């Protein structure tokens, strides 16, 4: 075969001829011996663990390779839109040949770097392409055939990557292109299902943010930077159409952020460019979907747009927002007010849904630190590494995947204010040791740094488990417990303050024009409320949606609220003292509530947790406690 510059281009197929012309115009040298390695082994491993494309495509590629493993020279690769190979499987013959030219994970096979090639042309043209032997622009491809198919994002029609089947020293099989196209099609469908679940989770978190920050501009952003939805306030501030269908353009394409802006789980703030050139800062809260990230909720802190208290890093609630008048609960609120004035660390205990963070915010706002940040951190569901980065921060280059600018960490961000550690019992013994040292020395060493920073924060910790029991079994440090429990505050469960239920009902339904029938109120007062106030709010929300008139009746309430077991349980009512196996009834009621929520959500545990008013970590703990398997039996 003659050299590319001597080849008669008229003899080439159109797709090959056009690619060769691009290669000639760019001055690409045909004597390149291998592809450049653009990713380290660590970077490849991290992308393979985090990339939705690899997560979905790799099982499909593995299954396909197993079906064709008898072909002695087959190589399957998965690449991202830039041509970086993220995953590959090959027979020993093809693998050896591929390693000599770097047709392996970590290398880049874009047309700009490697010329006319099946994978490169597929990414350039965004359609299936077959390139055989001497059609390759580089001589290293003359012993290869390749069939590629693009993987598209079915939400946005964007290019997500490509799958390619290479053959070494053999003719292309007639069915090879169909096989690769089927793999790409299956990958597209898998990514669509995964993306739909992530977007649903993101919408649910956005709704919660809108409920919490009613007057603040809010955005929901997908993990790849697409604007999923925006509140009316955010749309007005940024100059984008209100109520328009978004999620087709990235924030950078819309001109809302600088093109170099990085979005990762460690990103804390971004600068948004509004209309008229105005700049607004937005605090990002990552929404986690298993081990990956579904996206972000962004709350805009726009100067002059709202009072400082609306910032997500300042406490929103005060003691005036706390509802309840039963003597036991009123005493709890009074004690919390006295605790606020002390400046001591506080350990807040109580069942899930009793309002521990509400009390924590109220204590902060009644303290001398009220004008400084209130930083909440949920210690559950995070690895030691992630929690360490979240609390203590890190410097540039501290670990693979660290952002270029590093990260302050919540201790430094909360300097002078309050740090709220929710689900503190979930900390591993290793993290407990790190936290104890910071509390004792009042200084923080960011990950990867030898330079300490002052840590002037007040610690409010919360748990829904018996920490003394954890101390006895060795899973929680006694010395840390005493550091955290300078003051103790126990919040009573809703079943011990049933007379407050009518007050909550009036508060939740205020302004809706909806009434509650007396029979429905009796059912609510008879139920044991394992999810406490959060569950009550969710039940009323459910009832508002299912009611047929302007009054919520007992028939509009979930069946488990009206079950005989819950009605017979008189736990916490001082007026009646019948002997009742309350512990057993409560356990049965809680299990019934969880099963009901799982059935209503079609088995989606994230949605079930939202319906029950629980965090996913708490729901998983209760599933294990009640021996509830995936079949909900």
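-> sequence recovered:
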């Amino acid at each position: 075969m003659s050299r590319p510059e001597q080849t008669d281009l008229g003899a080439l197929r159109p797709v090959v001829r056009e690619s060769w012309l691009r290669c000639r115009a760019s001055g690409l040298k045909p004597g390149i011996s291998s592809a450049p390695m653009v990713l380290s082994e660590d970077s490849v491993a991290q992308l393979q663990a985090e990339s939705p494309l690899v997560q979905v495509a790799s099982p499909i590629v593995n299954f396909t390779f197993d079906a064709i493993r008898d072909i002695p020279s087959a190589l399957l690769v998965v690449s991202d839109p830039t041509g970086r190979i993220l995953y590959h499987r090959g027979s020993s013959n093809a693998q050896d040949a591929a390693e000599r030219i770097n047709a392996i994970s970590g290398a880049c096979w874009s047309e700009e770097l490697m010329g006319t090639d099946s994978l490169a042309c597929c990414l350039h043209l965004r359609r299936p392409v077959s390139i055989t032997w001497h059609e390759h622009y580089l001589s290293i491809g003359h012993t290869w055939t390749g069939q590629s198919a693009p993987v598209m994002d079915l939400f946005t029609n964007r290019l997500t990557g490509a799958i390619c089947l290479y053959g070494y020293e053999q003719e292309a099989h007639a069915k090879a292109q169909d096989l690769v196209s089927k793999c790409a099609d299956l990958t597209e469908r898998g990514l669509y299902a995964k993306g739909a679940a992530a977007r649903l989770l993101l919408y649910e978190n956005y709704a919660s943010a809108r409920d919490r920050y009613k007057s603040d501009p809010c955005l929901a952003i997908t993990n790849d930077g697409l604007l999923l939805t925006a509140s009316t306030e955010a749309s007005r501030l940024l100059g984008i159409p209100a109520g328009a269908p978004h999620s087709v353009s990235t924030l950078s394409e819309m001109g809302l952020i600088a093109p170099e802006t990085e979005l990762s789980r460690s990103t804390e703030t971004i600068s948004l460019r509004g209309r008229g050139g105005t700049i607004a800062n937005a605090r990002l809260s990552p929404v986690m979907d298993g081990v990956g990230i579904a996206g972000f909720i962004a709350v805009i802190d726009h100067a002059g747009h709202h009072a400082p208290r609306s910032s997500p890093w300042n406490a929103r609630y005060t003691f005036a927002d706390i509802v309840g008048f039963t003597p036991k609960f009123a005493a709890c609120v009074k004690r919390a007010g006295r605790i606020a004035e002390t400046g001591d660390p506080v350990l807040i205990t109580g069942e899930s849904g009793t309002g521990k963070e509400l009390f924590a915010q109220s204590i902060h706002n009644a303290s001398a630190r009220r004008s400084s940040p209130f930083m909440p951190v949920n210690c559950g569901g995070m690895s030691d590494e992630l929690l360490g980065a979240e609390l203590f921060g890190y410097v540039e280059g501290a670990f693979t995947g660290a952002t270029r600018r590093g990260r302050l960490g919540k201790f430094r961000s909360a300097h002078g204010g309050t740090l709220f550690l929710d689900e503190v019992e979930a900390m591993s013994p290793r993290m407990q040791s790190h936290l104890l040292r910071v509390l004792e020395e009042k200084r923080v060493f960011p990950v990867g740094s030898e330079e300490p920073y002052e840590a002037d924060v007040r610690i409010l910790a919360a748990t829904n488990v018996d920490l003394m029991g954890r101390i006895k079994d060795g899973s929680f440090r006694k010395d840390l417990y005493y550091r955290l429990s300078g003051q103790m505050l126990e919040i009573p469960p809703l079943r011990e303050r049933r007379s407050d239920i009518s007050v909550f009902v009036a508060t939740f339904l205020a302004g809706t024009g909806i009434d509650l029938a007396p029979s429905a109120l009796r059912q609510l007062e008879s139920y044991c409320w394992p999810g406490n106030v959060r569950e009550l709010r969710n039940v009323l929300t459910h009832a508002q949606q299912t009611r047929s008139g302007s009054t919520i009746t007992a028939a509009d309430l979930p069946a488990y609220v009206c079950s005989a077991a819950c009605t017979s349980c008189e736990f916490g009512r001082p007026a009646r003292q019948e002997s009742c196996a309350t512990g057993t009834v409560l356990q049965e009621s809680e299990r019934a509530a969880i099963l009901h929520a799982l059935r209503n959500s079609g088995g989606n545990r994230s949605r079930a947790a939202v319906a029950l008013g629980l965090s996913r970590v708490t729901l998983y703990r209760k599933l294990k406690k009640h021996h509830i398997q995936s079949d909900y039996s």
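Residues 303-311, 565-585 have pLDDT under 50 and may be disordered.
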